[in-house]
Amino acid sequence: MSGNEPNLDWLSDVSVFKVNRLEAHSDHRYYKTMEEAERQAPMALRHSLNGDWKFSYAVNVAARVQDFYKTEYDTSGWGDIQVPGHIQLQGYGRPQYANTMYPWDGLDAVRPPEIPVSSNTVGSYVKFFEVPATMEQGPVFISFQGVEAACYVWLNGHFVGYSEDSFTPAEFDLTPYLQEGANKLAVEVYQRCTGSWLEDQDFWRFSGIFREVYLYTVPELHVQDLRIQAGLDASYEKGKLTAELRMATEAEAVIRVELKDAAGAVVAEAEGRAVAGKADLSVEAGKVFPWSAENPYLYNVCISVYNSQGELVEAIVQRAGFRTFELKDKLMLLNGKRIMFKGVNRHEFNPRTGRNISREDMIKDIIILKQNNINAVRTSHYPNQTLWYELCDEYGVYVIDEMNLESHGSWQKMGAVEPSWNVPGDKPEWEGIVMDRAVSMLERDKNHPSILIWSCGNESYAGEVILKVSHYFRKSDPGRLVHYEGVFHNRKYNDSSDMESRMYAKPADIVEYLENQPDKPYISCEYMHAMGNSVGGLHKYIELESRYPLYQGGFIWDYIDQALVAKNRYGEEYLAYGGDFDDRPTDYSFCGNGIVFADRTITPKMQEVNFLYQNIRLVPERDAVTVINGNLFEGTERLLLEFRLLREGREIFKGQKEIHVAAQEEARIALELPDVSAAPGEYTLAVGLVLKEAELWAERGFETAYGEHVFRVEAAGITAGGEAALLPAAAEFGVIEGDVNIGVSGRGFTALFSKQAGSLVSLCYGGREMIATPPVPLFWRATTDNDKGTALGYHAGGWFAASLARQCTAVSLHTEADRATVSFDYAFSISSELKTRIEYTVHADGSVRVRMVYDGADGLPDVPVVAVSFRMSADYEASEWYARGPEENYSDRAYGARLIRFRRKVTELPSPYLVPQESGNRTGVREVSITDSRGYGLQVQAAAGQPLECTLSPYTAFELEQAAHAYELPQVHYTVVTLAAEQMGVGGDDSWGAPVHPEYRIAAGQQLEFEFTLTAALPEA
């Protein structure tokens, strides 16, 4: 649509979404010389308008400054705002987080296409600029790379244009309105418009000019749009390149194309003329290096545009990767091989700048992906900045490029499907605005080899409009496939997607689909909801890869916590979530689903993702390792096998080996290791594959794959679990049973048990007290986000009560010459049948063997944890472990944990999830010591062959349970030690009702017992 007079009615008119906006085109760069183009220099034909703009904020349309765009209106008294940037993160209004509901739900009674009026905030921007000398002789255009959600543009008082769609460029011709000297650019940005019904993504609701803004000009002969197709022949070895050029004018031009390899050598070339503003050229490239995430080999397509005098007018270098992506025999194939998406969904996010992210943010993100074996990303749920696709091309990441469409709140309410007023649905009046978003994405992004799939949007139900979008994608770009998950809810529109795509389908649901004559390959476009302490059971999905050919992976939800830096009442910075800005309605902490924290530090969940997403699996045994190369194309030539032998977690031997295992092959590699048959103990053979040379995303020596094998060597004549010899009696050893207390003492130690308190109340080594709060049975953990999703507090809250209070029903003492055993029996109010006993056997050498026996009761809910918990002074601040780690792990999230020795400060052990919750657990604990700054403290030793689970934290489960933010937790006074027979898994199939898988739950009616030994920890010699 074109027009000269702006109209506010456009904001609620579904038929008006662009006025005078230029047509979408490819995102190629262009230069005056090929030398500039080949080194991808900053574009001399662009001029940035980023920086300070004059700004006025209004809470709604009526309150805005109406005539600010006029040349005579003085804005010098206005404040400044940074562009790019969100209005709500620069002191105006407030950010609001909402998941599926529309942000005005309950506040404005509107239905599409109407929009809220009283709360539709307005940002008025003004920027003065002079036309750069490089642009004085040509036309001048402006490009807004991202404006949320609608904008009107004026120059020198003249209306220029209008645009909706927050996540693709809006470009306008400024040439007719330019003047010599200063030019006044005015932009009016509205937070709500008709397009807002299509932008109901699970994210913070912002507004403003949040991506870069620049002026640009073009030479007299200009390639307005470029389409590069670099495909492979049937052998997937030889390449053919086609270049389709659409010129800005129909003037005569000669086009020369050179295809250069990564070394700069010319592989092929072609020349042709632009006729009627179009030129199509193609070259046979011969044998090429195909592009893939494993080896993202890029060629340079060098395009020279000459005028009729033979002068070079424009130079373009477009990077291209030769590849073929196709659906064949129901399989998605890349270069002829069945692809497996080991993916993640990714919002553009920075905790200080929101969706205005920097180049540094993007590079950090892509390095994190590559270093953790993540090979694919879904741009949830909007097109990203151009740079992201360039990085994916260069580093090697597969992309599902998703158009800016989500109307979740129009058809799903509190989980129930109710599409009575769904948009766009089958409504023809919505076809134009939706199709415009598809066209804008495809035309900009079409030249990026990393993009394998176009997505028709997210969670917008189904209908004729989205079906037509899918047809458009296929017709316009048959070299890619089309994705849409929403047809799961309405199979009438099944043809909208080339693959079966589901969200949060449980493994059993996926198996049911795959075993019942599926007609499409399967992916989970979202799975493993990584909210808080989550990602348990990931292995159940990964195991489907080898069982079902039509299972082709999935995309974890999601990459990064969407948390914003804020300050509490004391001026301390913290990471805030929905509601913390008094934003209502809100979905609170549901924005914290990342496998990296908002500040881009890695969460412990990544340990599991890294391991299970490995392309190459290493399966060690006693003296060998089987290398299973799951790569599609790359062998192990760039990798070196490193292996280490550890005894009781300490390295005793290290070696390296060159290996050659082709893609899709496996080999058993014998390892030359020392003979350890005469040295009893627990051994770990740890093997890894490391980079021989540095890659773009990692240094030389970086480990890309890992595996380990644990075995025991028994001493001659001793069987595992055999009774240890009795300790000799010690003259200093004594037992005193008083009326209230039982004291046991010996050389260098004392232990005191209270009949009144019903527990061990003191354990001193060398005069140092180890016990600040007596040990008690613990059955409750601070609920995780997933626990809250299953209403654990409601269904199993009795265990909370049983952990807070118990009755000691009996105390017994049994003595021998070199030991004394004090036992405490406990009863609980939640069931008369539930019994627990804790026995303390104090030996003459000062060691204390602790044994807990849990006698369960039927009819009770599953137990979150069966443990003994006590507190030490916070002076005992350091920990050293021989356990599975180094990061936290749980029974259903332990595949990526290694049996190693590691050290951490106790304050570093809990994970800083947005909402305090259970965290920091380690499984497979053999030993852990908790010491002060001098090395004195307590050592915990598991019984041979019976490792524990253990959590060390400054906080009790009850303190964590009551805190909504980390700053609400008390000052650190204690080190809380929790030693468990078992703790239930954390789950992760979803965070709104999916239970932990049965094998990782603890049935209440069973009997469990476990033991460990406490001894003095002393400084290292």
What kind of oligomer do you see? single chain
Radius of gyration: 33 Å
Distance between the termini: 81 Å
> Which class of secondary structure composition applies to the elements?
mainly beta
For the secondary structure, the number of strands is: 63
Helix content: 10-25%
**Runs with pLDDT <50, length 5+?**
719-729
Instruction: Describe the main β-sheet briefly.
Output: 9 strands, antiparallel
Strand order of the largest sheet: 51-52-53-54-63-60-59-56-57
The chain-level mean pLDDT equals: 97
Strand content: 35-45%
Total of DSSP H or I helical runs spanning 4+ residues: 12
Taken from the alpha-carbon principal axes, the silhouette is: globular
Question: What is the topological layout?
Answer:
Elements: E1 18-19, H1 34-38, E2 46-48, E3 51-58, E4 79-83, E5 96-98, E6 122-130, E7 141-144, E8 147-148, E9 150-155, E10 158-164, E11 170-173, E12 182-190, E13 203-205, E14 208-209, E15 213-216, E16 223-232, E17 238-247, E18 253-260, E19 266-274, E20 278-287, E21 299-306, E22 312-320, E23 325-328, E24 331-334, E25 337-338, E26 341-345, H2 359-371, E27 376-378, H3 386-395, E28 398-402, E29 412-413, E30 416-417, H4 431-445, E31 451-455, H5 464-476, E32 481-483, E33 500-503, H6 507-514, E34 522-529, H7 538-542, H8 544-547, E35 551-557, E36 564-567, E37 573-576, H9 605-612, E38 616-620, E39 624-629, E40 639-647, E41 650-657, E42 666-670, E43 681-691, E44 703-713, E45 734-737, E46 741-746, E47 749-754, E48 759-765, E49 768-769, E50 773-778, H10 785-789, H11 792-804, E51 807-816, E52 819-828, E53 831-843, E54 848-855, E55 865-873, E56 878-885, E57 898-905, E58 922-925, E59 927-931, E60 937-942, E61 948-953, H12 957-962, E62 974-983, E63 1007-1017
Helix pairs in contact: 2-3, 4-5
